[in-house]
Q: What sequence folds into this?
């Protein structure tokens, strides 16, 4: 993420420098036109690079999230095995809770894999919301047997 931020700052400085250079009063009309075209080309290249950086960020986030999903799946499998050793009056509640957490985990995994980038701001908001949901799911999984059911 720091890499993307640094790249964005450098791209903005580059574009700003190009625009400032184009605004200087020079008697050469052709040179000014070339400078304007170069600035436009620089902006286009910076936008393309930024889009590629965002796509790389999405792919990296998906890879990192896969390990979290795997960890959640392992913990849920352990909990499923432990449910049978719980007192009979609590098994049904634990089974329902397990089913709900397993469903949420699969839904979150599907939501991330089906995400299509539609813009710079949408990725940021999607990632923030997704991180919140993942954190909530993680806490729910961690607190599986620490409810008032015991």
A:
């Amino acid at each position: 993420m720091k890499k993307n931020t640094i790249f964005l700052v450098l791209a903005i400085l580059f574009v700003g420098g190009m625009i400032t250079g184009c605004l200087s009063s020079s008697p050469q009309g052709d040179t000014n036109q070339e400078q304007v075209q170069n600035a436009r080309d620089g902006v286009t290249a910076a936008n393309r690079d930024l889009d590629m950086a965002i796509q790389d960020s999405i792919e990296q986030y998906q890879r990192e999230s896969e390990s979290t999903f795997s960890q959640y799946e392992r913990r849920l499998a352990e909990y499923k095995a432990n449910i049978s050793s719980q007192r009979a009056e609590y098994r049904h509640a634990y089974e329902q809770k397990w089913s709900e957490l397993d469903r949420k985990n699969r839904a979150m995994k599907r939501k991330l894999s089906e995400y299509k980038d539609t813009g710079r701001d949408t990725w940021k908001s999607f990632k923030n919301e997704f991180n919140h949901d993942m954190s909530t799911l993680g806490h729910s999984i961690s607190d599986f047997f620490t409810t008032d059911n015991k």
In short: Residues 83 and 95 are 7 Å apart (CA to CA). Helices lie at 2-23, 29-83, 88-113, 120-142. The two ends are 43 Å apart (CA to CA). The chain has one domain: 2-142.
